[in-house]
Every structure is written in C-alpha cells, then in structure tokens.
Design goal:
Blueprint: E1 10-13, H1 19-35, E2 40-45, H2 51-64, E3 68-71, H3 78-91, E4 95-100, E5 109-116, E6 120-121, H4 132-140, E7 153-156, H5 161-171, E8 183-187, H6 194-203, E9 207-211, H7 233-242, E10 246-250, E11 257-261, E12 264-265, H8 268-283, E13 290-294, H9 300-307, E14 311-315, H10 320-330, E15 334-337, E16 341-348, E17 351-355, H11 358-371, H12 374-384, E18 387-388, E19 392-395, H13 399-415, E20 419-423, E21 429-442, E22 445-459, E23 466-473, H14 476-493, E24 497-499
Parallel strand pairs: 2-3, 2-4, 3-7, 8-9, 8-10, 13-14, 13-15
Antiparallel strand pairs: 1-5, 4-5, 5-6, 10-11, 11-12, 15-16, 16-17, 18-23, 19-23, 19-24, 20-21, 21-22, 22-23
Helix pairs in contact: 1-2, 1-4, 5-6, 8-9, 8-11, 13-14
C-alpha cells in the first residue's frame, strides 16, 4: 500500500489517492496528535486547486475526533500559515498546524505541511515520537482504529494578512516608506503569496511592477518554481524594459525566493551575505562565530564570504523540517538553501520559532540595499565570478533505471578523482552525494584552485523517478563541460526525460 508521506511533509498527485485514503492520512495524523497531547488544530491552505477537498475532509474528521478546530478558508502563503500557528499556539499551547499545499510542484500535486506544539516542523524521523515516521506507521497499521470523540468544535478565523505584514515589518525594523526609491519586478507565479507581498512592498515605499500576481491554482504558465531554469526570464526582461533595480520571484506557496537584477538571478549563497549583514548590524554581533546552515548546493565562494563575517558555515542536508529542528536545538542563527529557502529564528512574546518568513527575508535584503545601493553591484560582481547550472532534472520510467543513471553519474565523478561525501562532518545524511574538486575546507576557510567545481546529485524525495543535479564552478567553460557530461549520461545513455 502506497502512502503520501515524504521526507518533510505529505505530498501526492491528486489522482493517486481517493477521499478514503486522504481521510486515512488525517486519521493517522490525528492519532499522532493524541499521542503528543495536542488538543487544538489550525488549518490553512494556499490557492492550489486540490486544497479545497483535502481541507474539507480534514476539518470534518478533526471535529468528529473531538479536537478544537480553527480554520482560515482564504488562501495564504505557507509562511503566513506558520504565523497563524504561532498566534494560535500563544492562545492554545498544544496546537498542531496543518497547511494544505504542494509548494512549487506542478498543479496536479497536493499535500500537507505539519507543525506540532510550539510551531515545530515535523518530518520523517524528525519531531516528537519520530514525527512523520509515526504518522506513516499509524497510516499503515491495521491495528490502528481512529478515535471518535464528542466535544469537537469549529471556529472560522479571519485572514491575518495585515497582522502578518505588520509583524514582519517590525521584525525587520522597517517602517512605512523606508524603502522608497527602489523599483522591483515581483513575479509570484500565480501563487498565494502575491497579494501579501505586493501589499507589504507598496507599504514600505517600493515601486512594484507585478507579474503573475493573481493567485490561480491552474498555474497557467507551468509549475510555480522560480528556481527552475529560465523561469525568471520574463521578469528579467521586464526589469530591463522598466529599468528596475531588482527582480524577486517566489513559488506557489511563498516559501521559496529568488533575487536578481537586470542581468540575471543571484545565487542564494550570495544573497545570504547581504541578509547576514543586516542581521549582524541589527543585533550588534561582533566577535562570536554564529552558526549558519547551508545546503550542498551553496557555492564555495559564497561560503568564503560568510566566514569573513565571523559566521561559521555548517553543511546540512536538504529538508525543511530537519533544518528547522537542528536550528532550534543548536541555537543556529540562520540558514540558506540554494533552492531559495531562507531560515531564521523568530520571536513572538515568549515563543521562539525556527522557520521561514519570506516577507521578513525580502525586507532584510532590501534594508541593506536601500542603505547601500552598491550592494546590488557587489552581489552581481560575485555572481559573475562563478558558473551555476541551475537544477537540471531527468525523469525515468522506473526505480531500476533511476538507480542505474545515478550510479553512472557517481562513476563519472570517481573517474574524475573528485571528493565525494554523503554525510556532513557531524554524520548527518545529506540525502544525496556532494562532490568537490579543487576545493579545500579548513577551519572555516575555503581554498579554491583555479579550476574547481562543486556538485550535488540526488534522487527526488517528493517526485518518483527523478534525478536532480546541480553544479557550480569558478569557470563557465569548465562548469559547462561538467554539466554537458552529466546530461549525456542522464539524457542519452539512460534515456531520461528532462523536466522542470
């Protein structure tokens, strides 16, 4: 029996699971909730077409299970849903948050992101009692019978858009009008974060040129993923035509962000330099080496710049829930994934949460830019020093073909005498293979040869039969040659179909 549980959320194609299987997922979730003493559930959703039915099934089952249920029916971004969970946790400390979304995936996907009391994200082997591992166990267990209880209640709550904007602006120390003079192309890919980001940026004084602003679960221009190759080309062309300072792109549920200028998109590692500068200035950090997480795709040149800011870069695996848990348990300042995810520590009264707030991230970046306009050129100069392939993905008919293609890629790197690892320095599984050639890490510093490349290859965790690859290099010709060789293996030798 298949299940929808993935590494850090539940995710499936709408056609894969009927109502009874979706109900079973919620029953397993609520069984887990009882085990960890949850008494309140708060539901939120984005604009994806499959959300309405899944939410309806979940709410009905939750009330029948005897939970106090709060729900906002109006679409919102995932970061805003975390804000709702924070608010609810302050009133009802034993709250589980359920966000109905499938993030950046194509329109036929649907899923759920989970938080447990104190707004802690759960994933596979991550969270109380193993998090999603326990939910999966209950989902498949014939011995598990859902509990029907009286006393359930339903409360419809208002959309928290204005509160979220005010909270995020205060967190970033931004007042209305503070960013006047910036012109930005904002491409929200018909996702749910468009209205909240447009409203907030206009309030801060930004001259915003919106693209694909209207939430539309059909995603008429394809999967809502700004990090896929060529997806931001229209925004860049608009920035040239309008002489805009920056472009910002954001995915379907609003937790994946890219920044760029008229010449192209910036790597998240370079963007993080600017964000860290704002955080350090805001909090007055001086000598202490604060830990900042990075994923295997962040380029080594960016890590070198982080280290120069008294920041200790810490390699960690992809996986939103696991990153947030590690941050909270180890007092990590922030984190960045090259896929456009940025993580911070937030406070709301006595509640401290490690997670995403895309509006806050954007405001931190723009706050440094408005105070030092040369930052954009500095980031562009760093960007122009390196080659990045962007993530290129190939789909295969079955697991056997997928595994064979992956093995051939690994054999290529072995023959090239590159260093490879599947774990971090602390033994954390990186869920893929990290590859370095011409790069040495020592005492928080990075040494780069004239010719170097870094790569990360893995099987997708949320889509079947997909191999994902990413390359960065100090030379476009050299990096392009490595990509060419990988594409030959993945596309031609093993007949993979290139996908977004």
């Amino acid at each position: 029996m298949k299940d929808p549980i993935k590494t850090y959320d539940a995710r499936w194609e709408v056609s894969e699971f009927n109502d009874s299987k979706v109900l079973r997922l919620f029953e397993a979730t609520f069984g887990y909730a009882r085990l960890i003493k949850v008494d309140t559930l708060v539901f939120a959703r984005d604009a994806r077409l499959g959300c309405a039915r899944v939410m309806e099934i979940g709410i009905e089952a939750a009330v029948k299970s005897g939970f106090r249920v709060l729900v906002c029916f109006d679409p919102m971004s995932t970061p805003m849903s975390y804000f709702v969970a924070m608010q609810t946790n302050l009133q009802y400390p034993m709250t589980m948050g359920l966000t109905i979304t499938a993030s950046h995936n194509p329109k036929q996907y649907i899923g759920i992101k989970f938080t447990v009391p104190r707004v802690e994200a759960i994933g596979y082997d991550c969270g109380p009692l193993g998090g999603l591992t326990k939910i999966k166990e209950l989902y498949h267990s014939r011995a598990f019978i859902p509990e029907i209880k009286t006393g359930g209640s339903l409360e419809v709550i208002k959309h928290p858009g204005e509160q979220y904007i005010q909270y995020s602006m205060k967190l970033a120390n931004i007042l209305p009008g503070d960013l006047k003079g910036l012109k930005i192309v904002l491409d929200t890919f018909n996702g749910s974060s468009g209205p909240e980001l447009y409203r907030a940026l206009c309030l801060t004084g930004v001259d915003v040129i919106p693209l694909r602003l209207t939430p539309n679960g059909n995603f008429p221009t394809g999967s809502p993923n700004p990090t896929s190759q060529n997806k931001m080309d229209g925004a860049i062309q608009c920035a040239i035509a309008e002489n805009a300072d920056l472009v910002i792109g954001i995915d379907g549920d609003g937790d994946r962000i890219v920044f760029g200028d008229q010449k192209g998109i910036f790597s998240a590692g370079f963007v993080m330099i600017t964000i860290l500068k704002t955080i350090i200035d805001q909090h007055g950090f001086t000598e202490e080496n604060h830990k900042v997480l990075y994923d295997p795709k962040v380029n080594p040149l960016a890590l070198e710049k982080w280290a120069e800011m008294n920041v200790e870069p810490v390699l960690f695996r992809n996986g939103h829930s696991q990153i947030k848990q590690y941050m909270k348990e180890n007092g990590v300042l922030a984190g960045a994934e090259e896929s456009g995810h940025f993580y911070h520590s937030f406070r709301m009264w006595n509640l401290v949460v490690s997670g995403e707030n895309s509006l806050y991230t954007i405001l931190l970046f723009l706050r440094t830019v408005i105070n030092q306009r040369s930052i954009i050129q500095n980031v562009r100069e760093m960007q122009d020093q390196i080659y990045t392939s962007g993530e290129f993905n190939f789909h295969y008919a079955d697991d056997q073909q997928t595994d064979a293609a992956m093995a051939a890629v690994i054999d290529f790197f072995k023959s090239d005498k590159a260093f490879m690892t599947t774990t971090s320095e602390t033994g954390i599984d990186l869920e893929g293979t990290v590859v370095y050639k011409g790069i040495r890490f020592q005492y928080g510093k990075v040494e780069l040869d004239n010719e170097w490349y870094a790569a990360y290859v893995r099987s997708a965790t949320t889509e079947r039969g997909v191999v994902r690859s990413y390359i960065s290099s100090g030379d476009a010709v050299y990096g392009g040659l490595i990509k060419e060789k990988l594409v030959k293996i993945l596309k031609y030798n093993f007949e993979g179909t290139e996908i977004e």
